[in-house]
Design goal:
Blueprint (H helix, E strand, L loop, with lengths): L10 E6 L3 H12 L4 E7 L2 H11 L3 E5 L7 H9 L8 E6 L7 H6 L4 E4 L4 H12 L7 H14 L14 H11 L4 H8 L3 H15 L4 H10 L10
Helix pairs in contact: 2-3, 7-9, 7-10, 8-9
Length: 230
């Protein structure tokens, strides 16, 4: 990963999975990349928390189902710690519609990947989440969020939305519908930079950790409804 105006930036990744072979496979793939460094491994959620606090990785690939402390609890421990605010958590799941994935995103995870994802997609995801891009596996994630949102109780308008401008509400709704900054820019006939600025300001006003949480807030506030997804 290279900045246009600076030297190469190395992405520091931690692996948390109770299966040694899974960790070994991910390590081999990631360590072979010049812009990625694997800084440690954990076999359970408790070890993962300790590892993250010690090494401060940029990204944690976190299995949902682990002994001692599961991935959801470990993720909540990470996202609740202000000192770890820059750490991004990507949940690993065996099935695309894992019943815990939506809860993982609500817990502060930046997205999720299925364990049998293609190598190129895994690498793209690690780089994307560091750059603050949209949810990983967007098509699957949109269906999953729609499914869980449809099961939830009728949302009440969030008081925090009162702080948003009309344009910021519009942008938040588009983010909730799964659009990227480029797609939002085309929809609103503005530049991608302007779209990105609106997204960033909305996240700051709502205290959202990343775009994943902004999507959840869009659903929970009723700004976006499941039936709106294509």
């Amino acid at each position: 990963m290279t900045d246009e105006d600076g030297p190469e930036t190395v992405i520091r990744v931690a692996l948390a999975d109770d299966q040694l072979l899974v960790r070994a496979g991910f390590r081999a793939l990631l360590a072979a990349q010049p812009d990625i460094e694997v800084v440690g491994e954990a076999a359970d959620g408790e070890q993962a928390l300790a590892l993250v606090r010690e090494r401060r990785p940029d990204v944690v690939l976190m299995d949902i189902r682990m002994p001692v402390l599961d991935g959801l609890a470990a993720t909540r421990g990470i996202t609740a710690d202000p000192a770890l605010g820059e750490v991004k958590v990507v949940m690993l799941t065996t099935f695309e519609l894992d019943e815990y994935v939506f809860e993982a995103i609500r817990s502060g995870a930046s997205g999720f990947l299925v364990k049998d994802t293609e190598p190129d997609e895994l690498l793209r995801a690690v780089r994307a989440v560091v750059g603050g891009d949209a949810l990983l596996s967007p098509g699957v994630t949109r269906r999953l969020i729609a499914e869980f949102a449809a099961r939830s109780r009728e949302p009440a308008p969030a008081a925090a939305l009162a702080e948003l401008t009309e344009r910021e509400r519009e942008v938040m709704a588009l983010v909730g519908m799964g659009l990227s900054n480029q797609e939002i820019a085309r929809r609103l006939v503005v530049s991608p930079l302007t779209a990105k600025t609106h997204v960033s300001r909305t996240m700051v006003k709502l205290g959202a950790r990343d775009r994943a949480q902004l999507v959840v807030l869009a659903y929970e506030s009723g700004l976006v409804r499941p039936g709106w997804l294509g």
